[in-house]
């Protein structure tokens, strides 16, 4: 019997399957400024979406913090205990001063936001099955596996979400992870190494962190990119391989790790994708999933520049304008010929802009 969890409660049909909590944002005496991470990115995305009147406070789903019991579905007790040491958390989050904080503050100011984002991804997994799509405005901690964190990732939210679905939602026995963050997703790869129910596609810069050769064995479709890869090559590869992956195996759900650290100028990603390129990339993934009527869950993962939040919000607005995401329960809008026409027009606009 699965344990009792608060994360799978019913959500009113008036809410969009967009999950967020103000708790996501890390703020503590300027500590967050010491990491090359815009630690308020998640709140800014929500503010942009509110300004554009896509959502309001009462039409989004408020994420709840994952409890120890929830986390133990994947994590070992040994690993969770290690997080009670500030130096371990300082290493995982790459914020060295965390080392000097008493652990109760580390728990409250650093780990709680990450646990709330993790709860958000798990909640969004169920919502994606109910509604056809869902977006967690945070999450995407793809470097963390059941017994090891790293690269700012302290909890394995993608693994947890898939295991929750396998255990609790009837009809979910196959999942595909499409990981388009600039880094290799070694956390979920290690967790699903010998699990044939999970198909992993990973597109990343081959020269940067983590270079985890062992984890690469779990990737079914591996696309390694060179420094400075630009829109044309990138989008062609994404389109070909998303189609290819879904032709190879038809999953019951897609987990889309939509990292924006592929953006030109990102100090960590080392790629050169334009803002329009990222918007187009998300569109390719959503249009492919929605046309095939496969539920899709998007998490935002890495992406560290000041302009990142605006790009994520613009991408979500674009998905809405094209009819790929809406508040309705059905997936029928993608069959609408008017929408098809808009898609074609938009593709030609974007081609002119960015290719
Ligand atoms: Zn990344």
TrEMBL record:
| Entry's EC annotation | 3.5.1.98
Q: Which residues form a coiled coil?
A: none
As one GO molecular function, the record gives: DNA-binding transcription factor binding
Bilayer-spanning residue ranges: none
Q: Gene3D superfamilies recorded for this chain? A: Histone deacetylase domain (3.40.800.20)
UniProtKB keywords: Chromatin regulator, Hydrolase, Nucleus, Repressor, Transcription, Transcription regulation
Q: Which Pfam families match?
A: Hist_deacetyl
Protein location: Nucleus
Could you state one GO biological process linked to this protein?
epigenetic regulation of gene expression
- Domain (Histone deacetylase) spans 35-316
Q: Which domain of life is it from?
A: Eukaryota
GO cellular-component terms in the record? histone deacetylase complex
Q: Which segment of the chain is annotated as a signal peptide?
A: none
The UniProt catalytic activity note for this protein reads: N(6)-acetyl-L-lysyl-[protein] + H2O = L-lysyl-[protein] + acetate; N(6)-acetyl-L-lysyl-[histone] + H2O = L-lysyl-[histone] + acetate; N(6)-(2E)-butenoyl-L-lysyl-[protein] + H2O = (2E)-2-butenoate + L-lysyl-[protein]
InterPro entries on file: HDAC_classIV, HDACs, His_deacetylse_dom, His_deacetylse_dom_sf, Ureohydrolase_dom_sf
What's the chief localization of this chain?
nucleus
Enzyme class label: hydrolase
Q: How does it assemble?
A: Interacts with HDAC6.
Family recorded in the similarity comment: Belongs to the histone deacetylase family.
Question: What biological function has been recorded for the protein in this entry?
Answer: Responsible for the deacetylation of lysine residues on the N-terminal part of the core histones (H2A, H2B, H3 and H4). Histone deacetylation gives a tag for epigenetic repression and plays an important role in transcriptional regulation, cell cycle progression and developmental events. Histone deacetylases act via the formation of large multiprotein complexes.
> Under which name does UniProt file this protein?
Histone deacetylase 11
Question: Which species is the source of this protein?
Answer: Geotrypetes seraphini
């Amino acid at each position: 019997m699965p344990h009792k969890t608060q994360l799978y409660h019913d959500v009113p049909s008036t809410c969009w399957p967009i999950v967020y909590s103000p708790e996501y944002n890390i703020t503590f005496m300027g500590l967050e400024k010491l990491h090359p991470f815009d630690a308020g990115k998640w709140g800014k995305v929500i503010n942009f979406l509110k300004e554009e009147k896509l959502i309001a406070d009462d039409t989004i789903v408020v994420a709840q913090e994952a409890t120890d019991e929830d986390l133990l579905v994947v994590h070992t007790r040994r690993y969770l205990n290690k997080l009670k040491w500030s130096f371990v958390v300082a290493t995982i989050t790459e914020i060295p001063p965390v080392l000097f904080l008493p652990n109760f503050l580390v728990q409250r100011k650093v780990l709680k936001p990450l646990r709330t984002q993790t709860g958000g991804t798990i909640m969004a997994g169920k919502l994606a099955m109910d509604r056809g799509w869902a977006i967690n405005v945070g999450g995407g901690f793809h470097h963390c596996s059941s017994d090891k964190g790293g690269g700012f990732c302290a909890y394995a939210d993608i693994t947890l979400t898939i295991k929750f679905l396998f255990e609790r939602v009837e009809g979910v026995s196959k999942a595909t992870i499409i990981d388009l963050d600039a880094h290799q997703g070694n956390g979920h790869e290690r967790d699903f190494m010998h699990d044939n129910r999970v198909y992993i596609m990973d597109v990343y810069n081959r020269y940067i962190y983590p270079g985890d050769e062992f984890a690469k064995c779990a990737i079914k479709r591996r696309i390694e990119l060179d420094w400075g890869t630009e829109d044309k090559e990138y989008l062609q590869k994404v389109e070909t391989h998303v189609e290819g992956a879904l032709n190879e195996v038809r999953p019951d759900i897609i987990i889309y790790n939509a990292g924006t650290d592929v953006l030109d100028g990102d100090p960590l990603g080392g790629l050169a994708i334009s803002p329009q390129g990222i918007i187009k990339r998300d569109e390719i993934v959503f249009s492919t999933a929605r046309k095939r009527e496969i539920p899709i869950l998007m998490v935002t993962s890495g992406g560290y520049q000041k302009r990142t939040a605006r790009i994520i919000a613009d991408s979500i607005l674009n998905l809405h304008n094209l009819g790929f995401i809406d508040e309705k329960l059905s997936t029928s809008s993608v069959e609408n010929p008017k929408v098809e026409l808009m898609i074609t027009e938009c593709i030609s606009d974007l081609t002119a802009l960015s290719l």
